[in-house]
Amino acid sequence: MAEKRPILEGFCHMSRQPTHKDKTLKAFRAYTELLDTAEWFKSELRAPLASFDLTMNEFRLLELLYREGAQFVRDLVKLRRTRSQGMHEMIDRLEDRGWVGRKVVTLPPVEFERMHRPESMRDEPRKGQRVSVVGLTRAGKKFFGNVLPSHSKVVKAFMRALTATEQDSLARLCRKLREGDVMKFVKEITMEREGE
After folding, report:
1. Pick from 54, 85, 109, 133: CA 20 to 30 A from residue 92's CA?
2. What is the CA radius of gyration of the chain?
3. What count of Cα atoms within 13 Å lies in the side-chain half-sphere of residue 72?
4. Would the pLDDT of 191 be above 90?
5. Rounded distance, CA 140 to CA 133, Å?
6. Total structural domains in the chain?
7. Strand pairing partners for 136?
8. pLDDT tens column, 72-89
């Protein structure tokens, strides 16, 4: 008489549900891989940029101005996630080379009810805020127009390790990480602390 085989024999064993610790370790591994890859990429691209007498941060600033046009310095500080002093020093270096120009402009005053001003100032004309604007000069556009194709070819050579679909996925995943839900993050931290 043939033995009865269990119904699930031959199937893969079902894995257990991952714990918070498993999820944390997996997230941390992904994080370190991302950091290692970003550092590796920067180190590999440092030499090609140095041949143009550019640092990575200078290249990124020139690329932003080339793509988006002139910008308020305060907006550049936010976009590049840097300190104001560091941004001004970088702009100074690029300005000395003749690649960017900076102007101080006065924005139109914000209009609001006359009664909302201190009584001593109600009859004075309102003044707008003074802000710095930076943009590429003609020489900067020409210079960067020569740098970008060359640098793009180097980047393309490195990115050939990924298919076009994987490159799209990588870009989408990076954007998704930057747009992460802060409240979800806070809940996750709180949940893990309560579970300790």
Report:
1. 109
2. 27
3. 9
4. no
5. 15
6. 2
7. 100
8. 999 999 989 899 999 999
Three-state DSSP class for residue 39:
helix
Can you give the pTM of this predicted structure? 0.71
Which residue in this structure is represented by tokens 């990115």? 159
Alpha helices by DSSP H, listed for the chain, are 20-50, 56-68, 73-79, 84-96, 138-159, 164-178, 182-195
Element (H, E) at 134: strand 130-136
93 has a pLDDT exceeding 60: yes
And the tokens for 17?
């549900």
What range defines the domain where residue 49 resides? 44-109+126-161
Distance of CA 22 to the CA centre of its chain: 29
> What is the maximum span of the chain, computed from C-alpha positions, in angstroms?
108
One-letter identity of residue 58: E
Length of the chain: 196
Same domain, 55 and 152: yes
Tell me: pLDDT of 107 over 90. Answer: no
DSSP 106-124: EPPPPP--GGGS-GGGTTS
Residue 81, in any domain of the structure = yes
* CB burial readout 6-24, b (16+ within 10 A) else e: eeeeeeeeeeeeeeeeeee
